[in-house]
Design brief:
Pfam families: Usp (PF00582). The protein has about 160 residues and is an alpha/beta fold. Helix content is about 45%, strand content about 20%. It is built from six helices and five strands. Strand 1, helix 1 and strand 2 form a beta-alpha-beta unit. Helix 1 runs parallel beside helix 3 and helix 4 packs parallel to helix 6. The termini are far apart.
Length: about 160
C-alpha cells in the first residue's frame, strides 16, 4: 500500500497524432496546472514505438536490408514525439515528468506501463475512427479500457463545428 506522502501515478500514452497531444494538454490543464505547486499525480508519459519488423511486415526478400534504416527512422520519430510532449509540459510549467519509449504494440505497452509504475490512472487519446477503420486497425483505447488494471480515461478531441 502506498504511503500518504507517495503520489499516485498517472500514465499518459502518446503517439504522433494531434489526438494524443490534445489528450496530454487536456490532462495537464485539468490535473496538473490547477495544482501547480503540488499536483496530485506523478506524471509518466509513454510512447509505444513499433518494432521495425512490425512496420516492414511481410515485405518479403530484402526486408532485412531496410531494418536498420527503419529502426533509425522509428528512433527519430520517437525522439520527436517525446520532445513535443516535453515542450507541452514545459509550456504548462509541469516539470516533474518521466518520459519513456517502449518498443511494442501500443495497447500492451500502455498496460505494461501501468503495471510497472503502479499507476492508478491511464490516459489515452481517442482517434475517433469509424467502425470499419477501428475494426481493421484495432483501437488502443478500447484495448486499454479492457486490459489495464486501473482507471482508464479516454480523451476525445471535440469535433469543430463549421
Amino acid at each position: 500500500m502506498a504511503s500518504m506522502t507517495e503520489k499516485s501515478v498517472m500514465v499518459v500514452g502518446i503517439d504522433d497524432s494531434e489526438h494524443s497531444y490534445y489528450a496530454l494538454e487536456w490532462t495537464l490543464d485539468h490535473f496538473f496546472v490547477p495544482f501547480a505547486s503540488n499536483p496530485t499525480f506523478k506524471l509518466v508519459i509513454v510512447h509505444a514505438k513499433p518494432s521495425p519488423s512490425y512496420v516492414i511486415g511481410m515485405a518479403g526478400p530484402g526486408a532485412a536490408d531496410v531494418l536498420p534504416i527503419v529502426e533509425v527512422d522509428l528512433k527519430k520519430i520517437a525522439a520527436r514525439i517525446l520532445e513535443k510532449a516535453k515542450e507541452i509540459c514545459i509550456r504548462k510549467s509541469v516539470n516533474d515528468v518521466l518520459l519513456e519509449v517502449v518498443e511494442g504494440d501500443a495497447g500492451s505497452v500502455m498496460c505494461e506501463a501501468v503495471e510497472k509504475h503502479h499507476a492508478t490512472m491511464l490516459v489515452v487519446g481517442s482517434h475517433g475512427y469509424g467502425a470499419i477503420k477501428r475494426a481493421v486497425l484495432g483501437s488502443v483505447s478500447d484495448y486499454c479500457a479492457h486490459h489495464a488494471h486501473c482507471t482508464v480515461m479516454i480523451v476525445k478531441k471535440p469535433k469543430i463545428k463549421h
